[in-house]
Amino acid sequence: MTDAQATTCPSSHREMTLETLADFPEGREVLTCIQCGMCAGTCPYGDVMDYPPRRIISMMRAGMLEKVFSSDSLLACVACYACMAKCPRGIQLTEVLLPLVKEQVFARLPELPAELHKALGNTLRYGNPMAESAKKRAAWVKTADVPIRILPEDPRPVDVLWFVECQNSYYPRGQDISRATARLFHRLGIDFAILGNEEKCAGECARLLGETGLFDTLMDYNMAVFQNYQFNRIVTSGAHAYDAFKYQYSAVGFKYPMEHTTPFFARYLEPLRPLLTRKLNYKVTYHDSCCLGRHNGFYEEPRDLLRAIPGVKLVEMPHNRISAICCGGGGGGMWLDTYYKAKGYERLSERRVKEAVTTGADVLAVSCPYEVSRFEDALKVMGHDKKMVVRDVTELLAEAMEV
Amino acid sequence: MSGKIWVVAEQWRGKLSEITFESLALGREVADGLGVPLQAVLLGHNVKNLAGALGLADSVIYIDHPALAEPDAGSQADALAQLVRQHKPHALLVPLTNVSLGIGTLLAEQVGAPVVNFCKDLRVVDGRLEADCVLYGGKIEATVTAKGDPAVIGLSPGSRPPDKGRSEKKPPVEEVAVTLPDQPVIKLKAYLEPDAGDVDITQQDVLVAVGRGIQSKENLALAEELAGALGGALCGSRPVIDQGWLPLSRQVGKSGVSVKPRLYLALGISGAPEHIEGMKDAPLIVAVNSDPQAPIFNVAHYGIVADAMDMIPTLKETVQALRG
Amino acid sequence: MNILVLMRMVPDVVEELEIAPDGKGLDTEYLRMIVNESDDHALEQALILKERRGGKVTVLALDAPDVDDVLFSAVAKGADRVLKIEGGDGGLTTRAAAGVFAKVIDSQSDLKSVDVVLTGVQAIDDLDALVAPILSRRLGLPYLGIVTKVTLDESGKAVTAVREFSAGVRGEFEVPLPAVLGIQAAEKPPRYVPVAKVRAAMKSHKIESVGAPTTADAGLPLIEVMRMRKPEVSSHAQMLDGAPEEISKKLAGIFTERGLL
Q1: Are residues A136 and A180 in contact, defined by beta-carbon separation less than 8 angstroms?
Q2: How many angstroms separate the CA atoms of A159 and A73, rounded?
Q3: Three-class SS of chain C
Q4: Angle at CA B135, nearest 5°, toward B132 and B139?
């Protein structure tokens, strides 16, 4: 069993701009677009997206990018990777092209929607979008029923640095997931620790939205904190944090082996299986998160984990794996619900929940921190919250472990 | 200790504000504690008729001048400064409200007096005035004394029940002249009334109040349904109105209205003093807030630590079921 | 239009406030400072005025932790000049701070000659004064507070300012210039400025330094804080526990008891 190595990725696309695309391999890739329109067709907000990638590229070729920059339509992009996954040319749309374009849109917006404005300001100031004090980030640890080492208090070398992430530190449901994750680490005998109050948002959603300055500030900060401690590898509960570390942080020298908790625990399935002794008798449908699924291909790992739980019956939604429907939280979407509603857009989380409910499942299983609150909210709003609950995969695993 | 206690009355558009009576109640206690007279100071133009309501004071000083017809902090402070230099009171209670904001500091600067703002209580200890003041949005209380007199006490609303400041007695009224320009330098051009044709929340028996914790405009619809189920209306704290989710007429607090419904259900409202001021007298206050430390729980009769959005649907269902 | 904006830092109440060992002030060890919210609105109103009628926005701030970020953000938002008053005592009360502002403005002809001074109407630590009225008296300028809208008149010699009263009523005032306005809220919420723009402002601009006055205002402080404390929380409310369903039933019972249902 070998640990996954972080993909060292070229940091070239940090220096690349829309003007210098031709000087970089990822940029030249963009220019190979055949204008097929798969991106626009697969975009969950395709009906309101004035500038899907196809049109952006054609406007670029026509020297008319200014028009794209002065439209606010790209605020509807939730960075779900659907366009990128379906592009026949394999262009890194979500990863490379869209953030460059959104950076320009962002700089020209006369006014930011209020909730987004606050979330970004809070992230810069407090290291989390919730306007909670950084000093309260590790407060949840007191409520965990297993010991959790906090590196700033006990800086001895550790095997796994567990990067918990904002939602799972501050929100009550996120803290449920963190407690479950800690129990799993503990029962598997893994030597782990957290950064506690020194941890700050990894910044990926700010980057995807176009606030690259905020992303850079957070990346510089987090990297400096990592370098203060000794650990073998990083495991994160944050799906977006995973992407940030894997694809962006190499620009500041990040070389640590790094995984997301779901594929991590999937690699520990053999020692984990005998611990899953409680029969759960749930019909479960698994929602593929955009980052773990489409972007990184971790489709089977969460399903393997779920199938290992006694009594769990897995059913699939019509849109699964590569065609899963995003919860709508990425790329700033987490803080734009009011804005979308004002524009009359359907909430993606409600669209997804409608589909989930048709499977007859009791449990909607997820593996990205945004999804819990978004789907629980959607279930409540649509009146299905008695029929179906939302659980993170780690919560189900912990539930299946008798203490 | 010689020197009177003065209560600067607040009148606006022909009516005395409730804080005037709160201030009289508090001023009476303090004056009696010091063994000195309590005087009410009434500023305005053609409002002598209002002086009769200030009978809890031993006497009223009335200043009539056209420049005082509408609130103008500069003119009011100028007038008070002339009075202060002449009569040398020991302390003045000046309302810290939207109508009167600024008068206290302008006056204090003119006569070189100390200012004590955010005062919610005053008492006499060893012949000195001690003020309890609320700072940092309600998170800290300080006990403060003034060095020198007159002490200009910036009085926050809610220090005493206004009814304690009312009296049947008719006080003697002394009309005093001051020198002011005919008109204030800053001229009122017009009053802008709030949007008409909307619900008057000051007349409701039940108010469901929403704050930042309601998170988004869509959630408002659910809160409105709850208000309807309870037979009441929706109102909000300033942030909700600032967002444009509710009109100005629904704003409760310092820049909005004061309400005294039989039930005030505060959802996702933290309880900053500016809001508390507008609803603290409601006989039944129930507050829902996810922060156990939220100051709203200091004024609420019942408190629930929860996300407002978790409570609204369930409460609505329960109430609707009861109503049948 | 030549506009001067005064900005101050106040304790950030998102952080837990602690009392100092002497029981008379805040413990400064974990204190974080944040710009006074209504000063931020004053800056926004100034920028709106500049965008509409041209002119110059100068920001003057007292030195305090993290004030540089605020000043560079102001530049990134469009302020022309930012100045920091350095070398004085820290932890000034509002009265003392206002006095420092007044002395500095009085001593610099380019600051003294502005058309309007905008600052926040109030701050959470205004125990012993409000800034705008003090400035008004010291500079001999008219004062209007609780302002939510400012429009320069055609003549350029006055502004029409909207000020809040209560019960949703506002008043429209004509204010001759120069004047001091206490801003409650700008016409729009303070604009967002991308972090990259602030970082760029840090490279392209300098914060000018102004020396604090050598003579403090006579007689200050005029008040004494005898003790400071954190209020007992939840001392009034009876807390109801349980799941939303249980709590809802309890509440419904209370409402029925009171004749509300």
Answers
A1: no
A2: 45
A3: CEEEEEECEEECCCCCCCECCCCCCECCCCCCEEECHHHHHHHHHHHHHHHHHCCEEEEEEECCCCHHHHHHHHHHHCCCEEEEEECCCCCCCHHHHHHHHHHHHHHCHHHHCCCEEEEECCCCCCCCCCHHHHHHHHHCCCEEEEEEEEEECCCCCEEEEEEECCCCCEEEEEEECCEEEEECCCCCCCCCCCHHHHHHHHHHCCCEEEECCCCCCCCCCCEEEEEEECCCCCCCCEECCCCHHHHHHHHHHHHHHCCCC
A4: 105
* Range list of H helices, chain B: 18-34, 73-87, 103-111, 217-229, 238-242, 273-276, 296-299, 308-323
CA–CA gap between residue A181 and residue C6 (Å, rounded): 49
CB atoms within 10 A of CB C106: 13
**B255 at C interface, C-beta within 8 A:** yes
> C-chain residues within 8 Å CB-CB of A135?
15-16, 30
Go through A130-167 and write b for each residue having 16 or more CB atoms within 10 A of its CB, e for each that does not. Answer: bebbbebbbebbeebeeebbbbbeeeeebebbbbbbbb
| pTM, rounded to two decimals | 0.87
The answer to whether C115 and B101 are in contact (CB under 8 A) is no
A6 secondary structure, DSSP code = P
Closest CA to A141 of A127, A131, A151, A155: A151
**Binary contact (A338, B313; C-beta < 8 A):** no
Contact A45, A76 (CB under 8 A): yes
* B196 interfacial to chain C (CB closer than 8 Å): no
Q: Is A377 helix (H, G, I), strand (E, B) or coil?
A: helix
Residue A34: C-alpha distances to residues A41, A87, A92, B220 (Å): 14, 10, 14, 46
Contact C46, C185 (CB under 8 A): no
Contacts of A216 in chain C (CB under 8 A): 195-196
Q: Which domains does chain A have, with CATH numbers?
A: 3-108 (1.10.1060), 114-267 (3.40.50), 274-401 (3.40.50)
Per-residue pLDDT tens digits for B153-197: 999 987 888 889 999 999 999 999 999 999 999 999 999 987 766
| Among A111, A112, A347, A381, the residue to mutate for chain B (most B Cβ within 10 A) | A381
Kindly identify which residue of chain A lies nearest to residue C200, measuring between CA atoms: A213
Sorted by sequence, the CB contacts under 8 Å of residue A9 that are 6+ apart come out as A246, A247, A250
The answer to whether the CB of B301 falls within 8 A of the CB of B287 is no
Low-confidence ranges of chain B (pLDDT < 70): 1-2, 196-197, 254-255, 324
Residue C241 identity (one-letter amino acid)? D
Task: Quote ipTM for the complex.
Answer: 0.90
Sign of CA dihedral B22, B23, B25, B26: positive
Q: Which residue has the tokens 């203490």?
A: A403
Residue A114: its chain B contacts at CB < 8 A? 243
pLDDT along chain A (403 residues), means of 10: 29 72 92 96 95 97 96 95 96 94 92 87 94 93 97 98 96 92 98 98 95 96 98 98 96 96 98 96 97 97 98 98 96 85 85 97 97 86 86 98 78
CATH of C2-211, picked from 3.40.50.1110, 2.40.50.140, 3.40.718.10, 3.40.50.620, is 3.40.50.620
Q: Write the pLDDT tens digit of every residue in C21-53.
A: 999 999 988 899 999 999 999 999 999 999 999
Question: Element (H or E) spanning B233, and its range?
Answer: strand B233-236
- Most A CBs within 10 A among B216, B238, B312, B315, hence the mutation to make, goes to B216
Contact B186 C175 (CB under 8 A): yes
**What is each CA distance from B280 to B170, B232, B266, B292, C232, in whole angstroms?**
30, 18, 11, 19, 17
